[in-house]
TrEMBL record:
Protein name (Swiss-Prot/TrEMBL): Rhodanese domain-containing protein
Domain Rhodanese: 24-126
Classification via PROSITE patterns: RHODANESE_3 (PS50206)
Gene3D superfamilies found in the cross-reference section: Rhodanese-like domain
SMART domains documented for this protein: RHOD
CDD domains, alphabetized: RHOD
Length: 139
């Protein structure tokens, strides 16, 4: 797994879904950085969950959400304990690194993402998110 380098303060710590589930159940905020469309299809069961996409799907492909850090700061303080997850663990890795660079102190990347979570048979939900940050799609 990852290691924590106290001197740099910006090395990403990746935890497995078992540890992530334990942290989420102990009160950590879970930030789902997938798109709202992905979230609606199913998401991690967590009491404190935010949907803040790290990337948006556009006709040109995926683009980074320029407001990502601002949106996280609107809901979370730098001291808040956070677990960041996505579909397979790639976007959450980059999102976690960005949060650490911004000064967040207690943030972990959920390795393997939602796919690993469901692979363990952990609880999921398919309801509408409380916080919709995605842009509506044109039909």
């Amino acid at each position: 797994m990852g290691s924590l380098d106290k001197s740099s303060g910006s090395e990403v710590v990746t935890i497995d879904v078992v540890e992530a589930k334990h942290l989420i159940q102990s009160g950590y905020v879970y930030i789902d950085v997938r798109t709202v469309e992905e979230y609606k299809k199913g998401h991690v069961e967590a009491e404190k969950i935010l949907v803040i996409p790290y990337m948006f799907n556009t006709p040109e492909g995926r683009v980074k959400n320029p407001e990502f850090l601002k949106e996280v700061l609107a809901f979370c303080k730098e001291e808040d304990p956070l677990v960041v997850g996505c579909q397979s663990g790639v976007r959450s890795l980059y999102a976690t690194a960005d949060l650490l660079k911004l000064g967040f102190k207690n943030v972990s990347n959920m390795g393997g993402g939602y796919l690993a979570w469901t692979g363990k048979g952990f609880g999921i939900k398919t309801e509408e998110p409380a916080v919709l940050q995605d842009k509506p799609k044109e039909l």
